[in-house]
Amino acid sequence: MSVFSDIPSAHYLLETARFFVVYDRYPVTEGHALVISKAERPDYFHLTPEEKAELLEVVDATQRLLAERHAPAGYNIGMNCGEVAGQTIPHFHCHVIPRYPGDTPSPRGGVRGVIPSKQAY
Q: pTM higher than 0.85 for the full model?
């Protein structure tokens, strides 16, 4: 059973038929949220076509909620698929990370920062 299964619905920011959204317990920035599948799927590539379609709607709804609550200047959206990609919980979740001016010395390279030597280009 996934650790995500223990999250009480009272902590949900949003809920749909196939997903729920919560704040990340170890946030990268203020407002860092997770979109989590209700069905325990290992990663994005194991979602059904219906789940993949609904995921886009939930990510958009999450962005709107975070814009209202936190007013970030930008976002990173990310999914880690597999242990070597940094996935620590084998249950699908998508990170929606608000970004703010000055939250890092140089945001250039964005998600390329997962391999620090490749971030600056």
A: yes
Structural domain spans, the chain:
3-104
Q: In what order do the strands lie in the sheet with 14-15?
A: 14-15, 19-23, 33-37, 93-99, 74-78
Query: What's the topology of domain 3-104?
Result: HIT family, subunit A (3.30.428)
Looking at the predicted structure, is the pLDDT value of residue 68 above 80? Answer: yes
Tell me, yes or no, if 93 is annotated catalytic: yes
Alpha-carbon Rg for the chain in angstroms: 15
47 to 29, 32, 36, 109: CA distances (angstroms): 27, 22, 11, 28
Strands 19-23 and 74-78: unpaired
pLDDT of residue 118: 75
Q: What is the mean pLDDT of residues 61-75?
A: 98
Q: Is 20 left (phi over 0), alpha (psi -120 to 50) or beta?
A: beta
